[in-house]
Amino acid sequence: MDTALSRIVVGYDGSPDADLALQWGAQTARRRDLALETVIVVNDLDPVLGHHHEHAEQAAAEWRELAVTVLSSSDLDDSGIAVRHGPTVPTLLAASHGAEMLVVGSRGHGLMTGSLTGSVSQHLARHATCPVVVVRRPHRPDSRHIVVGVDGSPESDRALRFACGLARAQQQTVFAVHGFHAVTPAKGTTDDIFSSEVAIRIEHAERLLRDWVAAAARENPDVEILTESIAVSPVRALVDSSAVASMVVVGSRGRDAFAELLLGSVSQRVLHDAHCSVAVVR
């Protein structure tokens, strides 16, 4: 296929979650008029034993046939399947260079070296140069809204615009969520939740959130954007919201990037705990 075209890259290993990822990638490519490239990665050497995987090529051939079956009903004008050799993460990162997004399943064949496992999706989300979508079956399959974390940072602004693009293609609503700590640990008590000071902070957070989404709303008049500020941690706000969402979209780093490096980033924790698919945007 012509890799100069705008395209979606899907990492595929024949697992049930990889099937979900390929189905999602194919549907999104068709709705957004993008090319689709399916990449099967074969790890030639066992990193523990140091010898060639005897069944690696056979597995790759089987996965390719499975991918063909999944794609047979996608009605895509431009799709291709490539088998590449090398370590999984660097190979997928190289394949996704310049792509609109990289799509993988949440879990893969954990017993086979080089397959897509949870740790692989975490590494891809950290290091890819394009948005990474990690697909899992949603808790509410009938959900028609996309949750996006917004905190005023450049990354969350890009996440909001990415969510709007998906929502337009999929005819969904965007739900912009801002989680924040209303009470500082040093002086907060249960009674503080009802204090006028906390009420003022909540009102201020809601006003900030409306300001942060205003530009995206003007640019996407055909997308309904709802907002909610929640006086809990950003992780809890997004994970709780994910229970009734089709997808959660987060920026790779938020406003408190240094603190998140020490504690584990919001994006990585949401990626691990969400009840639906997660897109990490940078």
TrEMBL record:
Coiled coil: none annotated. Pfam families: Usp. Residues 7-136, 144-282 form the UspA domain. InterPro entries: Rossmann-like_a/b/a_fold (IPR014729), Universal_stress_UspA (IPR006015), UspA (IPR006016). Belongs to the universal stress protein A family. This is Universal stress protein. It comes from Nocardioides panacihumi.
